[in-house]
Amino acid sequence: MKARLTITALLLGTMAPAQTLVSYTDADGLPSSSCRDVVALGGDSVWIATAAGVAFFDGSSFTVHNTTTHPGLADNSINAIAVAADGSIWAGTDFGVSVFDGSTYTTYTTADGLGSDQIRNIKQAPNGDVWIGTVQGATRYDGNVFTSFGQPEVPFGGVNHFAFDGNGDVWMAGGLSGIIIYDGNAFSYITQSDGLISPRINSIALGSTERWIGTASGITVLDGSNNVLEQHTRLFQLPPPDTLNPVTDLVLDANGRVWAGVYVDYLVTEGGVSHYDGIMWDQLETSDGLAGPNVRRLSVSPENNIWVATSTGLTRIGDTNIGIEELPSRVGLQARPNPCSTHTNLIFSETLSSGARIDVLDMQGRTLRTMRGTGGREVMLHRQGLASGIYTIRLSEDGRRLGSMRLVVE
């Protein structure tokens, strides 16, 4: 028995550690701790939009662009930033969009074809077009000409964010009108009457089979036919009585995990980053090392690090490949006996409702068995169908992780 327990401890010791968070502020070289947007490149290099200029971080130090160092920049207050395929940097301000070619900035305004000079978001489509979201609509730059789209095609409320579908469609996050889709010829719409949890859309993340829509009231998940699959309204746990979960941004990492920024400034001032593994949400807050609760934008690096722009600094979240079961438990779990040969009794520190879910996962994270709570604090798990090895017992309820433990089957 001693030998077996020692081997188990060694195996557990080789598993991924918790996420690591490193934060940066103006004390580290940012022109301002108020970060509004971020684009992650490889090797810990990032471009950041701040309230006092554009910043480039090479992994060790910051280079700052402002109207003094680069007079062509429209303004020091930068709302959005993008890096185009040709290496040019697009910085959105309240006075137009400024494009950096590696040495100087050139600013474009409504006089050049922008629908508005107040920029909210900038993204480049796979075909090379640059899309600019403004307070009045959307503008496309095809490399030669700016073409603006406003009312009635783009309803009142402007455009907060862009995403691009595999078929070439451009998805726009309407500030007040739901989702606006442009196929290159015509516009179509997905609204609250179609099942969106809110018409105020802040971000869109398009996966291979699911569309994640970040709204002012949570997340709506659509299927490939744009039918509602799920609504996530409590992805970030807040102190009572407040439960509202306004989503500020959404990204999908290399493993398909969803990361969401949440910020609440009503009754309470709370926020952070939540991540979802397909079963449950877990959150990272200032107590975990996040630069601040007011999360504005997220970006995924080629190394699968998550960069977070907040109103009080910039945070890099590393070691994102951690399994969710490695995080601290909220409900105590024991298994008696453990190791087991025929069966074990799972014992919990709290009474489980019938809505509680108990999953048995193998070392690859695959769910092999699922059971439900019985209204008590103990559930019997039979070994039948489980080969000898190490398993994770994971407890959740209403999509929230409650706890986990390791079980050894002889």
Distance between the termini: 11 Å
Strand order of the biggest β-sheet: 1-28-27-26
Unreliable stretches (pLDDT < 50, length at least 5) are 1-17, 323-327
What is the helix fraction of residues, given as a range? under 10%
Structure write-up:
This protein is an all-beta fold and 410 residues long. The protein has two domains: 2-12 and 326-409, Immunoglobulin-like (Sandwich), CATH 2.60.40; 19-322, Methylamine Dehydrogenase, Chain H (7 Propeller), CATH 2.130.10.10. It is 3% helix and 47% strand. The protein has one helix at residues 2-13; strands spanning 20-24, 35-40, 46-50, 53-57, 62-65, 80-83, 89-93, 96-100, 105-108, 119-124, 130-134, 138-141, 146-149, 159-164, 170-174, 178-182, 187-190, 201-206, 211-215, 218-222, 228-232, 247-252, 258-266, 268-276, 281-284, 295-300, 306-310, 313-318, 333-336, 343-348, 356-361, 367-372, 378-382, 389-397, 400-409. It is elongated. Mean pLDDT is 88; it is low at 1-17 and 323-327.
